[in-house]
């Protein structure tokens, strides 16, 4: 999420330096901006829906994974899950990503499916994480997914392009749109940016074929799923659980099952759109949190910040620190501090994935 929106949300919730400003005036400003933003979002989609501008076509199937709200829906692990699903059907997959957070300009080949050529900070950590975890899949980044796809086609000849964060990328034709909705709050507070977290109004879902309710727990979210099925009866509605898959201890890099973290006193830190999800995951695993430090999404950690985290961990009696797989990628996959670092990886598991294959 753009830092401006983080700042505005803090103001609206009475946090941060700007909290001294009256919340009512901030709400009014956010509401006005949301109206203007909504007009722009409807106009932009309408230009392509009404064929005033035509999207460009790539020479293979294009499947888009996107969302309606900013950040935190589990898009990266779901993209990985889908890649493995399509690879299991014998398809060569090329992932096309915006590559947010990287320094490189233009189209970049992170991986050709066999070798990784770039890593953070030259490229964004999410695209790199996909390349590192998906052998056999090519990963290309670029502001123009069409240009990235053309170059990937010439070099890789994929059977299928998987468009990461593509629901609002109207310039490229998609054969299948999958939209992720967070099970805890599918539409946030129901308002558009910056008053809420919606990038487009709910009416935009009319153009999607598949809706996936992510971070789904049957006991907690059964009614939410039923409500969405009632609201969107013509859509294929699936669910996806996102669960810890492994914990690796660095600098040695020894992999362990997530249960190895149970009972351990750890100081956690993460730069995510929704860091509270990471905290809840650690608590569910039985980690004894000596502290938890949240940073902005895509945060580039400075050496002084890491040193401060290590000092805090030592002062609180933590045996080690812990962070996420995406933050580990942003750290350059290097750790030489006095205390060790655990890295928790997650995987998505989609219900009835064969229903997605029916569209291909």
What can you see in these coordinates?
The protein is an alpha/beta fold and 360 residues long. Helices cover 33% and strands 24% of the residues. The chain is built from ten helices and 13 strands. It has helices at 3-12, 23-49, 75-88, 125-133, 145-156, 218-231, 275-284, 303-315, 325-330, 354-357; strands spanning 61-67, 93-97, 108-112, 138-141, 160-164, 176-182, 210-214, 236-250, 254-256, 265-271, 288-295, 320-324, 341-350. α3 (75-88) runs parallel beside α4.
| Number of discrete domains | 3
What CATH architecture of the largest domain do you see? 3-Layer(aba) Sandwich
Largest sheet data: 13 strands, mixed
Name given to the CATH homologous superfamily of the largest domain: P-loop containing nucleotide triphosphate hydrolases
Q: What level of helicity do the residues show?
A: 25-40%
Number of helices, counting only DSSP H or I runs of 4 residues or more: 10
Number of strands: 13
List low-pLDDT spans: 1-9, 12-21
Distance between the termini: 32 Å
The CATH topology of the largest domain comes to Rossmann fold
Radius of gyration: 21 Å
Strand fraction equals 15-25%
Category by helix and strand content: alpha/beta
The sequence of SSEs as H and E is: HHEHEEHEHEEEHEEEHEHEHEH
Shape: globular
């Amino acid at each position: 999420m753009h830092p401006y929106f983080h700042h505005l949300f803090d103001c609206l919730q009475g946090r941060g330096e700007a909290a001294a400003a009256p919340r009512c005036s901030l709400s009014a400003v956010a509401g006005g901006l949301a109206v203007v933003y909504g007009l722009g979002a409807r106009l932009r989609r309408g230009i392509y829906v009404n064929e005033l501008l035509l999207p460009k076509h790539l020479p293979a199937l294009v499947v888009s994974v996107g969302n309606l709200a900013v950040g935190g829906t589990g898009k990266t692990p779901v993209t990985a899950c889908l890649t493995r699903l399509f690879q299991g059907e014998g398809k060569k997959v090329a992932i096309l990503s915006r590559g947010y957070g990287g320094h490189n300009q233009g189209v970049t080949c992170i991986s050709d499916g066999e070798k990784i050529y770039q890593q953070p900070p030259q490229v964004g950590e999410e695209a790199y994480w996909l390349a590192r975890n998906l052998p056999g899949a090519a990963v290309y980044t670029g502001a123009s997914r069409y240009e990235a796809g053309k170059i990937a086609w010439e070099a890789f000849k994929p059977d299928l392009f998987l468009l990461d964060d593509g629901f609002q990328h109207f310039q490229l034709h998609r054969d299948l749109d999958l939209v992720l909705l967070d099970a805890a709050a599918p539409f946030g507070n129901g308002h558009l940016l910056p008053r809420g977290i919606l990038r487009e109004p709910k009416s935009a879902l009319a153009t999607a074929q598949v809706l996936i309710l992510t971070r789904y727990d049957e006991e907690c979210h059964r009614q939410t799923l039923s409500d969405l099925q009632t609201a969107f009866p013509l859509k294929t509605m699936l669910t996806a659980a996102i669960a810890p898959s492994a914990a690796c201890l660095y600098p040695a890099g020894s992999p362990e099952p997530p249960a190895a973290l149970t009972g351990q006193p750890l100081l956690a830190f993460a730069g995510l759109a929704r860091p509270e999800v990471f905290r809840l995951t650690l608590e569910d695993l039985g980690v004894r949190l000596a502290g938890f430090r949240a940073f902005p999404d895509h945060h580039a950690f400075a050496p002084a910040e890491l040193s401060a985290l290590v000092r805090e961990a030592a002062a609180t009696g933590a045996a080690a620190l812990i962070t996420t797989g995406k933050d580990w990628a942003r750290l350059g996959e290097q750790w030489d501090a006095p205390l060790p670092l655990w890295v928790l990886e997650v995987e998505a598991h989609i219900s009835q994935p064969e229903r997605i294959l029916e569209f291909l």
